[in-house]
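hey so i finally got around to running the thing on that chain from the lab meeting. sorry it took forever, my laptop kept dying and i had to restart like 3 times. anyway pasting the input first so we r on the same page abt which one it is
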Amino acid sequence: MENIHMPVLLNEVLHLLHASDGGRFIDCTVGAGGHAESLLSASGGKLLGLDSDSMILEKASSRLEVYGEACVLRQGNFEEIAKIAEDTGFTGVDGVLMDLGVSSLQLDTPERGFSFMRDGPLDMRMDRSLKVSAADLVNGLEMSELKTIIKDYGEEPMAGSIASVIVRERAKEPILTTSRLADLVRISGKSRDSRVHPATKTFQALRIAVNRELEVLAGGLAGAYSVLRKGGRLAVISYHSLEDRIVKHFFRKHVGFHRSLESGGSEWIGEKPAGRLVNKKIIKPTELEVKKNFRSRSAKLRVIERVE
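ok and heres what got predicted. didnt touch it at all, straight out
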């Protein structure tokens, strides 16, 4: 049976983005189209949906075609939001949503190689045009480089042991599947948290590295904020501490006016527009939502409003 994607913190997103008031919105990670469909339905307005994954975008297109010209879909990642918004006439928008989670469609498709729960090729590329896959990293990097990635991007205390086992075993035979990598992580040492699969953090780390997720997020936040109108809101749903730390830092920098230096197009130059934190406390899923959708358990929602 095909997995049904359940949008995370849906009611909270619709409420905090004032979707019922109409307007124009951008969904930076349209995924299966759950949030996008609800934003279009509630607002009666227009929406630009982005996704770096062509397979996901195709499925979203089928779901959202009923909205006709009110819904515009484009392939691209966070870093490209400002340019795509300008090209499609979606500047000065009322709200922008960034849901940073991996799509259920990606996790549940074995050949995409995102999940340690399903055997498949060790890929993990959200955009299939990317040249480097997880298998390339696992089989090509020095042990010290693997350790750094697993430690920094996975916050994995066993990073050294895991990297050592990977290097030892790949010398015997290349590591090309998700199941083999998961098995190697499992035998590399006992996980400190028995509630979490021992390969969770390693897979997260490799996925982040393959897709440059943290760099793309930093650039995307600046781009998303830049296309808001005065009074427009940016809502971001993060799922782990590395993402949330970047979002929190970005939001704090934009509360009030600040000076900034040019940084590869991902930072404002000169005066930054003032912002207001809409929710001073992180919004998390209710127990009921987590019961219905276990993948929402680690979600954190932060919202900022552009006031100048």
